[in-house]
Amino acid sequence: MSRHVIIIGNGFDLFLGRKTKYSDFYKSDIYCPKDYPAPLIDYLNQWQPTRGLSEVKWFDFETELYNYSQINHDIKDPISPEEHKVLAYIKERNCPVSADEISDFLYVPSNDSGEVYVLYNNPEVEIRELFLKQTVCNLEKMVERHLLSQTEDLKLYYLKDPVYAESKEVRDKEAFKKIKSGLRDYLLSQPFSHTNDEALRNRLNTIFEMDKFDQIEVFTFNYTDVPWPEKANVQYVHGKIKDDTIVIGTKEYNETNNSYKFLQKAMDDNFNPPAIIDSLLTLGNGDKVTFFGHSLGENDQQYFKDFIQSRSSGVTYKDLTIEFVLKSLNDKQYTKMAIQDMSNYQLTSFQSKNRVIFRSSEDL
Question: Which domains does the chain have, with CATH numbers?
Answer without folding.
Answer: 3-72+171-363 (no CATH), 81-165 (1.10.10)
